[in-house]
Amino acid sequence: MLVSLSQSREETIAEIMDGVTIGAAFAAAVAAHADRPFLAVPANEGRDYLPTGFEISYGEAGKRIAELAAVYRQAGYGIGHRVATLLENRPEHVLHTLALNSIGVCCVPINPDYRAAEIAYLIDHSEPDLVLTLGAREASIAAALAESAHQPTVFLSERFGGPLPKVARPAHDAQPLPETAASILYTSGTTGRPKGCVLSHGYEIASGAWYAALGGAAGLRTGQDRIYNPLPLYHANAGVVSLMGAILTGNCQIQPDRFHPQRWWREVAETGATVVHYLGVIAPVLLKLPEGEYERRHKVRFGIGAGIEPELHAAFEKRFGFPMIELWGMTEMVRVLGDTVEPRQVGTRAFGRAVPGVEVRVVDDEDRDLADGRPGELLVRHSAETPRRGCFSGYLKDEAATEAAWRGGWFHTGDVVTRDADGMLHFVERKKNIIRRSGENIAAAEIEAVLLTHPDVQQAAVMAVADELRDEEVLACIVLKRPMPDKEAAAALFQHCNQRLAYYKPPGWIHIVPSLPTTGTQKIQKHTIYPAGTDPRTLPEIIDMRVLKRRSS
C-alpha cells in the first residue's frame, strides 16, 4: 500500500498501521515504481566506497533484497531472530535491513563511532543471533566480543555471496505482522546506559506515512522527490522516517556517508535533491561558507529538521532560497510535528501544533497543566482511547522504564516547551539530564559513571553548556582524590573517557574543583555548582578539551 495524499493524515496512518508490514510496503512500491530511483549515493572521490556514486531503482533493489532475504531464509532466519548490523551509511545497510524485515527479523543497528565497551553492552543487551559487519569494522566487533558475555555469529557483508552459517535456534512458524518488531534503536537515557527502543513494522511504516503527508510547506510528492539525508542510518531520522516516507511515495533517498560542509551544495545540486534534512549544527556552518556556484543551482523545495538557531533561520532561508521547516520528534514518537503552514513563525523555535493523532499537554514537575506561555514538559499521546497507538513498543528488557515514561497515560518526552494561545508549540530546552551535541543525545550519567572508574576521581558532575556550533557541549566538574596539576589531570581524564566512549561523548570542557555541593543524602546539586548567570566557559581555570574530540575514522 502506498500513501494516499487525498485522505486526511490520520485516516492514512490508521489504514496503514492496521495492515501493512515493511516487506509488503516495499513490494507495493516495487510494483508501482519499478523504474523510478529508490536509493542514491553522491559521488565523492575521497570516499573509500562507491567514489563515483551509486543509484538503484525500486525494481533493481527489489531483486537484490529478494536475493538477500533468500540467503537469510536458507540459513534459518525469521521471526524471533535479531541481527545487529555495523554497515555505516552505506547502501548495504538499507538493503540488508529491508531483506531482514521482509522475513520478520529484527535489526539492531550499531553506531560506528561506538567503542568496544559500548558495542559489547549493545550485544549483551539485545542478544543478536548474528552480527553483520563491514570488513573494515571486523576488529571493532572482535574487540567488543572480547568483553561481551553473549557470543553471536559474526559475518562480513563482503562475503555475503557465499553461504551464511545456519542460525542456532529455529525461527517462529509465523509471518511478519504490523506489531512484529522491525528494529531496536539505542537512545541515551537519563540513568546512564542507552535504552533499546523497540520499533514495530506498523510504527515505522506509520512514521514514514505521517512525514510524507505533513502538508503545508512540507510533505512529499509521489514519485517526484529526492530526499538528501546526511544523518546516520542507525538513527530514526534517516533510517526510519525519511526512508519509509520515500518508500511509501515512490521517492528516492540520497544517502551520503555523513555531513561534509565543503561538499554539501555540490552534492545537493548534482543529485537533484528536492528535500534536505538538517540538524541545527548544519546551518551556521553553511552560512559561514563563501558564496559558491552550487548554492543557487539546487532544486530544493524545503529543508526539514530541528535546532536551527533563531537568529540564523531567516538569514538561511533568504540566502539559499527555501524554507527550513522546524520539527519535533523523538525515537519513541516519530509522528513528527512541524511548523509547516504559512505564515510560519521563522526564528522562534516553533514546531507546530497538536493535531488529530498527536495530543499534547504542557505540565509542571507534578504533571499539572500549565497556562499558555509558561515553560513546562511536553507530554504526548495518540488519544484518550488509545494513548500508545503510533508510538514505540517499549524499552527492551525494561518494562519499569516504559511504564514510568507513560505514567498517567501520557508519554513524558523530557522536552521543555511553551505553548501560545493559538496552540503553537516552541522548543525551549531538554528537561532531562541529557546533553544534545550535534544531533546526538548524550546521557550525563553515562559519562559520570565512566569518570568515576578512574582511580583519581572522587566525585564527578557532568552537564551541558552552550556551544555556538554544536548546540551543546559536555562539561565535567571533577573532584580529585589527590592533588595534581589541573591540565595533567584533565588530559588523563579525557583519554580515559575517549578510550571507552564514542568520540562525541567525552568532556569538551573539564573543570577541576575542590568540592561539589551535595544534599544531605550526598546527591550532587548540579544547579548550584555555578552562580546564576555564570557561563562556566569563561572561567580562567576551566580547560578546553574540544580540539581532541575527533572521529577516529
What is the approximate shape? globular
What's the tally of helices?
14
In terms of DSSP E residues, the strand content is: 15-25%
Mean of all residue-level pLDDT scores: 92
CATH superfamily of the largest domain: ANL, N-terminal domain
For this structure, the CATH topology of the largest domain is Rossmann fold
Rounded Rg: 23 Å
Termini separation comes to: 40 Å
Q: What is the percent of helical residues?
A: 25-40%
Number of strands: 25
* Widest sheet, order of strands: 2-1-10-9-11-12-13-14
CATH architecture of the largest domain: 3-Layer(aba) Sandwich
Given as residue ranges, the uncertain stretches (5+ residues, pLDDT < 50) are 1-6
Structural classification: alpha/beta
CATH class of the largest domain: Alpha Beta
Domain count: the total is 3
Structural overview:
The chain is α/β, with parallel strands linked by helices and 553 residues long. The protein is 27% helix and 24% strand. It contains 14 helices and 25 strands. A hairpin with a 7-residue loop joins strand 7 and strand 8.
